[in-house]
UniProtKB/TrEMBL annotation:
The lineage of its organism: Bacteria, Bacillati, Bacillota, Bacilli, Bacillales. The keyword Transmembrane applies. The keyword Membrane applies. It comes from the Bacteria. The chain crosses the membrane at residues 32-52, 82-100, 112-136. This is Uncharacterized protein. Keywords: Membrane, Transmembrane, Transmembrane helix.
Length: 147
């Protein structure tokens, strides 16, 4: 699994170096894999917000929201969201601690074992596929191209 992270880091550094007018901080962050992780979390939050808005009964005017945001008339709900997330995680951890005897019992372990094994096998195949694809991308980036 570690070599997959290394391949991703090498691929990101190559792409950053081939990008016109790249800065040293761009190359450093691409090697550390911090920026892609933040990008993925932002995409996940945006994806969830769009689907929640689509599935709600009340519809919002997106252009009015955009206009209000440009004029500084909106308030961020980031603090509320982070606090809710922390409370939810704390609640789940407390439930796991309270029910630890049940969760670690033999019947529960035997019932989830096949699912865990199938999940690890699938994860192994996906990691191998992704690693081979990254090696292919690194191989094809040897040409004189610009990102």
């Amino acid at each position: 699994m570690g070599y997959s992270i290394g391949l991703a880091s090498i691929l990101n550094v190559i792409l950053a170096l081939k990008t016109p007018m790249h800065r040293p901080i761009d190359v450093i962050l691409s090697g550390l894999l911090i920026s892609p992780e933040i990008y993925l979390w932002v995409n996940l939050v945006t994806f969830n917000q769009v689907w929640i808005e689509r599935l709600t009964a009340t519809k919002k005017d997106g252009w009015a929201n955009q206009y209000a945001a440009e004029n500084g008339k909106t308030k961020s709900k980031l603090t509320q969201g982070l606090l809710s997330l922390c409370l939810f995680i704390a609640f789940v951890v407390m439930l796991c601690i309270y029910f630890r005897d049940f969760l670690t019992s033999t019947p529960v372990q035997q019932s989830i074992y096949p699912y865990l094994m199938n999940g690890w096998i699938l994860l192994t195949y996906l990691t191998i596929y992704q690693s081979l694809y990254m090696i292919y991308q690194i191989w094809t980036l040897r040409k004189r191209i610009e990102a």
